[in-house]
Amino acid sequence: MTNPFDLTGKVAIVTGANTGIGQAIAVALAAAGADVACVGRTPAEDTVAQIRALGRNAEIVSADLSTIEPVQRVVDEAVAKLGGLDILINNAGIIRRADAVDFTEADWDAVIDTNLKSVFFLCQAAGRHMIAQGSGKIVNIASMLTFQGGIRVPSYTASKSGIGGLTKLLANEWASKGINVNAIAPGYIATNNTAALQADEVRNKSIMDRIPAGAWGDPSDLGGAAVFLSSAAAKYVQGHILAVDGGWLAR
């Protein structure tokens, strides 16, 4: 029988592939057989080295997704370097923390532009390519704050709530065109974005006390979910937000 999780011959774009969740997902896709365009402001040299060590092809695509200026180039460069595009993982994101009464317009715009606006237009550019070929997989990275409010991160919460809605909208429009659009909502994962929470003894304890698994997640914990949603195994999964959270939402 054919392995439905096999990604051999597929080409993926992963944004924010330099470290953390993006790097882990890129390596997991490669382990399943995909070639990967690693997108980010900082060249993802270590990620590319890990992927090539697995016997897959990987290329660096340099792009600052704080604006939509490089979006079409990202798609065009990935197709030119790797010969196609079958999978898009929208992982790149930033966070700004401040009390809502003190939150600045600059911090609002920076987060929304990177986490939501650029994600939509990258979906659009990839979607045009995928619609033309009649197939494709798009996986957006959502958050626990797609479901909850959080504190001191108003623009991040708004952006990740928007990712949830955008994922469903695109699934509604593109499912009939052979494209699966879904999202992964990571729980509390130990990355650079959550370093401030991990360092805050009070917040860290309150988070740990609520996680049934009893530990922060590791970026590699997202790999299997990404492979699943990028593969034929998920061919009838549309508009779903898959929580990988150690049981956080269940409590």
Summary keywords:
alpha/beta; 7-stranded parallel sheet; 251 residues; globular; Rossmann fold
CATH topology: Rossmann fold
Which CATH architecture would you pick? 3-Layer(aba) Sandwich
Count structural domains.
Answer: 1
Q: What is the fourth-level CATH superfamily? A: NAD(P)-binding Rossmann-like Domain
Strand order of the largest sheet: 3-2-1-4-5-6-7
CATH class: Alpha Beta
Number of strands: 7
Low-pLDDT runs of 5+ residues are none
Largest sheet: 7 strands, parallel
The CA-CA distance between the termini, in Å, is 39 Å
Series of H and E elements? EHEHEHEHEHEHHHE
Number of helices: 8
Structural class: alpha/beta
Helical proportion? 40-55%
- Principal-axis shape equals globular
Please state the CA-atom Rg, rounded to the nearest Å: 17 Å
How are the elements arranged and paired?
Blueprint: E1 11-15, H1 20-31, E2 35-40, H2 45-53, E3 58-62, H3 71-82, E4 87-90, H4 105-133, E5 136-141, H5 154-174, E6 179-186, H6 195-199, H7 201-210, H8 223-230, E7 241-244
Polypeptide structure, described:
The protein is α/β, with parallel strands linked by helices and 251 residues long. It has helices at residues 20-31, 45-53, 71-82, 105-133, 154-174, 195-199, 201-210, 223-230, and strands at 11-15, 35-40, 58-62, 87-90, 136-141, 179-186, 241-244. It has a single domain (11-246), classed as Rossmann fold. It is built from eight helices and seven strands, in the order βαβαβαβαβαβαααβ. Helix 1 (20-31) runs parallel beside helix 2, helix 3 packs across helix 4 (105-133) and helix 4 packs parallel to helix 5 (154-174).
